[in-house]
Amino acid sequence: MRVIIDRFEGDYAVVELEDRSTANLPRSLVPPGAKEGDVLVIEIDKNATKERRKRIQRLIEELWQE
Amino acid sequence: MQKILQYIPGFRSGTNWKKIIALLYYIFTLLMLGAGVGVFLFFLAAPFFVFSIIDLIHKKKRAAVVLLLSLALMITGIAITPSPPDDQLAAEQPASQQPINQPDNIAVTENNTEFSDNSAVKNAPEQSKDVEKAGENPNKQEEVDLSDMAPAKDEAGQQSQQNEQDSSKNVELAPVPAQQPPEKPAANLKVHFIDVGQGDCILIEDGTSAMLIDAGNPENGPDIVSYIKNLGIEKLNFVLATHPHADHIGGMADVINAFDVEKIIMPKATHTTRTFENLLLTIQNKGLKITAPIPGTEYKLGNASFTILAPNSSSYTNLNDYSVVVRLTYGSTSFLFTGDAEQTSEKEILAKGYNIKSDVLKVGHHGSKTSTTTRFLDAVSPRYAVICVGANNQYGHPAPETLSKLAERGIKVYRTDEAGTIIATSDGKSISFNKQPSNISMSTNTNTNTNTGTAVSKSDESSGTADKQDKSQDDIIVYITKTGSKYHREGCSSLRSSSIPISLSEAKQKGYEPCKICKPPQ
User: Fold this and answer.
1) Nearest CB to B217: which of A19, A22, A37?
2) Taking chain B, what is the end-to-end CA distance rounded to the nearest angstrom?
3) Contacts of B273 in chain A (CB under 8 A)
4) In 3D, which of B402, B414, B385 has the Cα closest to residue B343?
5) Fewest CB within a 10 Å sphere: which of B131, B181, B222, B337?
6) Do the chains contact at B275 and A36, CB–CB below 8 Å?
């Protein structure tokens, strides 16, 4: 999904969604250095997700007795 | 009686079906009075003319006299037909229908001229042809002319209505000669600060001319269009987009599609959003061009005029500073519209030494603290300030600092989040408002939303008309479509073509009903 930074207002970046509506994105979620007009890509990182799942699974297997 | 009737085509033989046709024709002729005396005369004389030719061939008595008389009447009719529309054109401001209307009238008169030209031919062999034509024509001609004239008549009706409207306005306004100094305009200028929630939308109109500054958010488009249409406005002399942010240009494509637009003024600033692209494409599709704002340029808007004061640089880091700033004067009253211009632009305006002193200040950038610097405010020194801002917006607009600056100076503040749409009326000497000013000591914004940990929250942009009583419903987001009257759950099959998020309370307030298929929360 791609969103476009329309402007910054207060603590938010106002981003334009694909249907041209707008939503507030807290500045903490906006990559540092992003400017008005920048296109942000919001996507699922499948590899990172898999990595995380493995990691936690290992912990779980160590900790559960059964 | 019998004697008179024997001269009137249709009643001469006393045959019933002829009488009926003749009667219908004469009623039609009478109706033609609505399209002008000339048209009426033409149609009245036509049957006399046609039948006198036939009579002439049958060598009846007095046929030649009737022929000449009716010919004279028809020519008189034709001669006076084109003049009334011309007079109207000159008397009226070029209204939008006129160009459409005029060709119609011309077509009618051209037909007439053709007809009379043909009949004016006195050449004997040709004449017999004419007679043939004329002989078979009456019915046909009537049909054709009926269909031709019907729209013309309607338009004429509209015209006279318009004239009535205009003249009634003129009575109220008293026509202002062009030379008269603008200190004494007779009409009232109205500035509508239209409530679009968190965004700007300002309509300036005096009954004959109109200008729109900004058009709120994308979802506000249809409401803005109907607001303007409800005022009877069909043409916008100016459409001004202060800068390309979505809360200022959002509904502008809808506006440009819906109205006859004369001049579009926009800063030549680039933005990458679809909203901006859509606006540019709409302008392109309509075959319009955009005028870049050049500071110092003055434009006339009816009896008012406005001067461009910003932007004064060609590039800024913040799109807000591209904002077109205009000062509007009407008689001895003045308004300053600042868009979202921030301190950088304010400084430049001050440095240029423009006269910015104004009775009404549209407070820059929804009252945020990055605008309305002390020096700028003191140079404007307004009596009234208007803040276009959305109720419970999450951006902290207007800033408490700005509100206290205004309060300290005794400036009366009007806010769209509190009062809804605000209309300021100027009679050229003084300005009145249709709403009560804000009570600043009470309304200092303590509502700055500190709860930033709530991940992505839908913005409150269009909350304007809502007095948010029901907080819980505010947090529930439902979806509406561009044209439908129902609201839906996310993912409802009805949302395939368009899906516009909206808070539940707002959806209900705008009259949307729950979808029966997806059964969204109520």
Assistant:
1) A22
2) 78
3) 4, 6, 16, 20, 37
4) B402
5) B181
6) no
**Can you tell me which residue has the tokens 């306005």?**
B169
Residue B273 Cα, gap to closest chain A Cα (Å): 6
Q: Is the pLDDT reported for residue B231 higher than 50?
A: yes
CB within 8 A of B343, min separation 6: which ones?
A: B370, B371, B373, B376
Amino acid at B515: C
Contact (CB, 8 A) for B248 and B340: yes
**To which residue do tokens 């910015």 refer?**
B356
**Residues in contact with B107: Cβ distance below 8 Å, sequence separation at least 6, in sequence order:** B148
Q: What ipTM, to 2 d.p.? A: 0.89
Q: pTM higher than 0.80, yes or no? A: no
Q: Contact B323/B344 with Cβ under 8 angstroms?
A: no
Lookup result for tokens 């106002």: A14
CB B353 within 8 A of CB B385: no
Q: Is the pLDDT of residue B135 over 70?
A: no
Spatial distance between the Cα atoms of B209 and B164, rounded to a whole number of angstroms: 18
CA distance B55 to B52: 5
Cis peptide before B514 (omega within 30 of 0): no
The token pair that represents B456 in the structure block: 């992505």
Average of per-residue pLDDT across A13-41: 95
Q: With contact defined as beta carbons under 8 Å apart, do B452 and A22 qualify? A: no
Q: Is A11 in the B-facing interface, judged by CB distances under 8 Å?
A: yes
Which residue type sits at A58?
Answer: R
Question: Is it the case that residue B467 has pLDDT exceeding 50?
Answer: no
